[in-house]
Fold this sequence. Notes:
The protein has 2 domains: 2-139, no CATH class; 163-296, Cyclophilin. The chain contains 4 helices and 21 strands. The chain has helices at residues 34-43, 179-187, 260-264, 279-296, and strands at residues 2-6, 10-14, 52-56, 58-59, 61-64, 68-75, 79-83, 86-90, 96-98, 103-104, 107-108, 111-119, 138-139, 163-170, 190-192, 200-204, 217-222, 227-230, 237-239, 246-255, 271-276. The strands form 4 sheets. Strands 14-20-18-19-16-15-21 form a 7-stranded mixed barrel. β15 (190-192) and β16 form a beta hairpin.
Amino acid sequence: MIEIIKKGFMTLPVTAKRHFLEKFGVSTGGPMDFIRYTLANRLVGNPGDACALEAAFFLPGLRFTDCRAFAVVGEVDALTVLHHGQKQSLPANQTLFVEPGDELLSCPISGGMRAYLAVSGGIQLSTLRPQPLAEGERLVLLPGMLPAPRRLKKAPIPVPTGEAVLRVISGTQAEHFSENGRKTFYGEEYCYTPQSDRMGIRFSGPAISFAEGYDGNILSEGTMMGDIQVPTSGQPILLMAGCQTSGGYAKIAHVIMADLPVAAQLKPGDRVRFREVSVFEAQAILHRLIRELDERV
Length: 297
């Protein structure tokens, strides 16, 4: 087991996306940043869908009850492990080993919003909708072999440093927006607002105008992570990992899968611009990213 000593700001157990439950209103879920989640699991020898911890702003403080390997992938300057009462400073982005009673001390995430902590064997996830961790809670770990130590050969894709460009393909209701509205969306800058969460990122900026006869409302239809909805206010909302399974707002664009990890690392106050690419380009970018992912560990 691992015991939660300090919960951090918002720490969630996350696993690979759920499929085929959307018809029951259950979101696909999964990690916000699939790149760092995948790399953390690879460093400890876990399968790609193993449950790991997603931490926002601060890593949690943990106590281990048996010998395990763990890895933290994210922008963390230094990890501190309490081993036999002595503090040890250890690097992130590589395999680390602990013994029963060892503690990982809570620390801030220095760049981006999220980091991922994987433990060899993986965490046993008991519910479809995990709640944020609470202090004193214990998480059951699945059996797992201790892996050979590994480290990232390359750093994960850079986190935004106050601004980012998100590449998109045209949305299913792009024709619901006026020519000026589309120019505004692609030509202006938008700001990440504090009213954002795992369901969606709310941006503020110049209002996006609709074509004559449209106001942003549509008959509800299926939605997915990456969709950019525009309600009557004209302010875009980027749907993320915890988004609803259907929605009734027009979708002007869809963020390509390769750029969703960038969106996951945005913080309140960060500025973004949207740039349109073709479906062919989006597929080529994703294939290149996956190839590079295989080269990182």
